[in-house]
Design goal:
The protein contains five helices and two strands. By secondary structure, it is mainly α. The chain has one domain: Phosphorylase Kinase, domain 1, CATH 3.30.200. Strand 1 and strand 2 form a beta hairpin. The longest helix is centred in the C-terminal third of the chain and has 19 residues.
């Protein structure tokens, strides 16, 4: 990803506020590598959490609850005017 694209996406992400999204607080962009400062995720990312468990302790009810929470956050994001800009950066914007 080009630095200009990254900064454009970061500017969008800074405007997004939802309890189920990790907050982006700042971007350090004076020199490369570009760095971001986000809200602390005590348990790590959702992806790592799901990969680490490998279906051993997470029940279907837990998975459905997680999916519902992700859906709620996505519906909130997509209801905003950011939708078209976020879809292009999908892998980076919400996960």
């Amino acid at each position: 990803m080009k630095p200009e694209e990254f900064l454009k996406e970061a500017a969008i992400m800074k405007k997004l506020h939802h309890p189920k999204l990790v907050a982006l607080y700042a971007v350090c962009s004076q020199e490369e590598p570009l760095l971001i400062i986000t809200e602390l995720m005590n348990g790590g990312s959702l992806l790592k959490y799901l990969q680490k468990d490998q279906g051993q302790t997470i029940t279907w009810n837990n998975l459905i609850d997680i999916a519902a929470q992700v859906n709620h956050a996505l519906m909130s994001v997509f209801s905003l005017s950011f939708m078209c800009e976020i879809v292009e950066g999908w892998p980076y914007s919400l996960l």
